[in-house]
Amino acid sequence: MGKRSQCCITYISIGKKVPIVTQNQNGPCPLIAIINVLLLNGKITLDSTAEVVTSSQLMGYLGDIVLQTMPQVGSVHRW
């Protein structure tokens, strides 16, 4: 997936309306797979009016969730 590529957002119903990201080009895309797992598990959300998302936005969502789930360091350890 290139830097400026866009992916479509499709909404599915699994007891509630959930967005999933779909590819515009053929080929494997681990970033889309990871984002869809996070969307389906409710770990991240997208704007309910969004129809497309860029790869840069997807990377931002992934970066945000990584930072949110990192353990908090209360003090610096010296080894």
Count up the helices.
2
| Coarse structural class | alpha+beta
Low-confidence stretches: none
Q: How many beta-strand segments?
A: 3
Radius of gyration: 15 Å
Measured as a percent range, the helix fraction is 25-40%
- The whole-number mean of residue pLDDT values reads 85
- Biggest sheet strand order reads 2-1-3
Features:
alpha+beta, 79 residues, globular, 22% strand
Explain the overall architecture.
The chain has 79 residues and is α+β, with helices and mostly antiparallel strands. The chain is 33% helix and 22% strand. Helix 1 packs across helix 2 (55-69). The longest helix is centred in the C-terminal third of the chain and has 15 residues, at 55-69. It is globular. It starts with 5 loop residues before the first strand and ends in a 10-residue tail after the last helix.
Short account of what is shown:
The chain is an alpha+beta fold.
Strand-helix topology:
Blueprint: E1 6-13, E2 17-22, H1 30-40, E3 52-54, H2 55-69
Antiparallel strand pairs: 1-2, 1-3
Helix pairs in contact: 1-2
